[in-house]
Amino acid sequence: MSSSEEDSSTNNLDLDSLKPVYNLIELGLEEYEDNELVLDTVHDLMQFFKKQSNSLEKSECVLFLKAQLMAFEITNKNVESQRQNYRYNYNASLLLCKPVFLKLCGISDHVLLAIQKHLQENGLTEKTHGNTGCIPKLKSKVHLDSSITFLVKCFLEQYGNINRLPSPMRHKNESEPFIYLPTGNTYTSVQRIFL
Fold first, then answer.
1. Could you read off the pLDDT of 70-106 as tens digits, one per residue?
2. Which domain of life does the protein's organism represent (predicted)?
3. Do residues 81 and 146 both lie within one domain?
4. Which of 96, 107, 150, 154 qualifies as a cystine partner to 111, CB 3.0-4.6 A?
5. Where are the beta strands (DSSP E) in the chain?
């Protein structure tokens, strides 16, 4: 192997091993010291959650988060309490605060609370959207038959031939002049005439 090949292979290794610079303040980690252990941990966590979120569909990601929440759940000795507490961590050895967990997952507190609520009410099942199975309102309001559309088309062509105003502008090319309708006409007035 020549020295130029060795240099290019070491350059490739150096580029692959470079870690991005993380701003702890932007991540909400201003109380942590900016040292190599913290930055390495942040990098590992970011890579882990980025790989999970990029490789999973949205519904799979929600199930993944639910499974994590089940592992993070703290059982209360007090049975009367309905509120669930969670101890967020990474690899069962590194405790995380909730804001860090949210940043790493790329979700908001509102989304996490909705996932937690669904987990408590329905367990580890897939969450379906409330509009699933509903017919869109726009499609349910109007159904046009081909015979009606043909009548409307014929009426509009005839109405345009009777009430048209040619464009006052000259046309340099050989295209036909633009045809306008009187400005006093509105969609509603034309519809009334049609009816």
1. 888 877 666 565 677 888 877 667 788 888 788 777 7
2. Eukaryota
3. no
4. 107
5. 73-74, 85-86, 89-90, 94-95, 165-166, 179-180
